[in-house]
Amino acid sequence: MQASTRITNILGGGSDGWDVFNKAREMIAAGTPVTELSIGEHDIRTAAPILQDMHRAAMAGHTGYASIPGVPALRDAVATRVQEQSGVATTRDNVLITPGGQSALYAAHFAVCDPGDTALYIDPFYATYPGTLRGVSAHPVAVQAHAQDAFQPRAEDIAAKAQGAKSLLVNSPNNPTGVVYTRATMEGIAQVCRDHDLWLVSDEVYDTQIWEGEHLSPRALPGMAERTLVVGSMSKSHAMTGSRIGWIVGPPEMIEGMINLATHTTYGVPGYIQDAALFALELGPTFEAEIAEPFRRRREIAHKVLSRQNAVSMVPADGAMYLMLDVRSTGMSGEDFAYALLEAHHIAVMPGESFGQAAGGHLRVAMTIEDSRFEQSLQTLCGFAESLIAKQ
Hints:
- 42% of the residues lie in helices and 14% in strands.
- It has 392 residues and is of the alpha/beta class.
- It has two domains: 5-45 and 286-390, Aspartate Aminotransferase, domain 1 (Alpha-Beta Complex); 48-284, Aspartate Aminotransferase, domain 2, CATH 3.40.640.
- A seven-stranded mixed beta sheet has the order 2-8-7-6-5-3-4, sandwiched between helices. The chain has a four-stranded antiparallel beta sheet with strand order 9-10-13-12. It has a two-stranded parallel sheet with strand order 1-11.
């Protein structure tokens, strides 16, 4: 007996990009202390009041089957939040509650792509993107952004691959680069989508982590609301990664179709988690800013550390909880550097190559440890790069 081609082809015959991370976890399991700057997990836990509300909701009995599209009050709250942020009229009919952003990405592409359809995405990319597209039997095609453009994708590069494509997946603020797409970039993306009749899937899970510039949802641009599906999540904005709660915002007829998909796959999200998510959203923007503040602070620490040396440079980190560091001056690939850093100093980072070809020779550093340890780790990383250059 054999498994389906669909399931065996999710990784496309290659690595999932997490080899260095897995090596670090093996070292930790063997008793070797490792400083992990590899995964986008807050160093704080979900706030106690949110957990208390989750407990209250569970004890009150909201533990049975919940409304599959989402509890109406939560759908309303998400719609209000999205409308206030984007200026686009949004109601509960535009909202489907999902078990996290990853589930939303899968559902969105299941909704817009038929088997064999070409689905575009930007390289560098979050590690699950190609597998998600293969998982819905689409044909994933990468469009490279370039380090010399600070990884802002060029509209002409997207257009060159858009003929016959069905969809485009974008992510701003961006994981892994920390780049926030400019208005000009977003307008170029929107023009390509209109010109080539593409669905746009916009992953906006880092929309509360903006350090420079502003977040612009492409759904707000002319002619885009009817062809855009926005993916959101409580994971990054409210430190609720393990709660697995997110959403899709899109045209009502597409939401209706994805409700049918949810009925036959996830069967919704637990009611007590939805109640806690509603409670968390009602804490408002001030609370979201508190969750984001450590990453803003650590970004400033990174600027200070990097200004003292010339071996490592940083891609403009205008949002999200990551830094993209350029280590090409060492003559090493990002993967080789990451393995060497782990071996020499027990510091784990993600190679740029884990996120596609465009970020080769770079590292993704997650700003997810306490400030003083983060500063010391960056200093060690830069010193290691300087020692490698000195040996050339």
